Amino acid sequence: MSTHDSTDRRPRRARTALGALAAACALVLSATGCAATTSSAGTSSPGTSSSGTEPAAGGSHRPTAAPRRSAPAVTEPAALARARVNIGEGATVGVGMPISVTFPSPVPRSQRAAVERRLSVGTEPAVTGAWSWVKDRNLFDGQRVDYRPPAHWKPGTRVTLRVGSHAVRHFTIGRSLTATVDVRRHTMTVAEDGRPTARIPVTAGRPGLDTWNGTMVVMDKQPKVYMDSRTVGLGDAYQGYYAWAVHLTASGTYLHQNPKANTYAGRANVTHGCVGLATDGTAERFYRRIIPGDVIRVTGSKDTMEAGNGYGDWNLTWDEWLAGSATRGKGSSGSPSHP
């Protein structure tokens, strides 16, 4: 059960009373931020602080017959010291999870290339990828940069992220799970490792409150979430807890248990924008199969979600993604990760 933001072309999906796991696990690298083997010099809508400093880049002085000056030290952008990462240390995430790094204040355009070059991604096996500056729905331009490959990660990939000399994250890509919601046929087809494993009746957003179209990535999930339509200007349409809630967008789209699905799943779209599953155990079974980073694809609807409305990164083509990089992806190819 959700609504769209009134600042959009349609009402916003309902906010939750529980904080998104992505926000809960996010840690300020100098304090507490959240997240996912590629290498980058140079990535969004949901860890602990980790050490792992690296010496600042700089020249060395070697005595010779003709003394030479040392090369000047390269200063790290100050923004890196307070960056947050969306993937926690040691996490296992789905194949769609981008690495998302956010900053407490906007990074000026003149400094963004330097920031990208100090964000290093290493993988085993090697994977090509690139950073791109994403306008997060809830942040200013320049406060978020994401990393993704041209296509979804390969299951089993081990990833190491280094945020300059300030922090390191190690995470693993788990099995592949993709769920495709066809709002016209009122069904959701689940595929694991490329093989269809289930076809589930669903009910999606009713006309005028249509579910976002496009590819979403699971941000987090909660056994129970409180939703209140009054917070988004829809009066008393709904108010209460909804179980087995899988969080899909920053604007409030969830895939969750909904008593209305007992009647309408597989037949009609009647929700306020969320995707509803029946209370007969269907919603709980799906919930227990899902991990953050799994891919939910919605087809047959209308407006496509924006990249910064959660993790909508995959709704951009690779060329569009590279266009958002301050380095245009140069130096962002993957390389083996190191301890």
Automatic annotation (TrEMBL):
Residues 1-35 form the signal peptide. Residues 36-76 are annotated as: Disordered. Pathway: Cell wall biogenesis; peptidoglycan biosynthesis. It comes from the Bacteria. Pfam families: Big_10 (PF17964), YkuD (PF03734). It comes from Streptomyces bangladeshensis. PANTHER family: L,D-TRANSPEPTIDASE, L,D-TRANSPEPTIDASE YCIB-RELATED. PROSITE patterns: LD_TPASE (PS52029). Coiled coil: none annotated. Residues 36-53, 62-73 have a biased composition (Low complexity). This is L,D-TPase catalytic domain-containing protein. Keywords: Acyltransferase, Cell shape, Cell wall biogenesis/degradation, Peptidoglycan synthesis, Signal, Transferase. Residues 177-299 form the L,D-TPase catalytic domain.
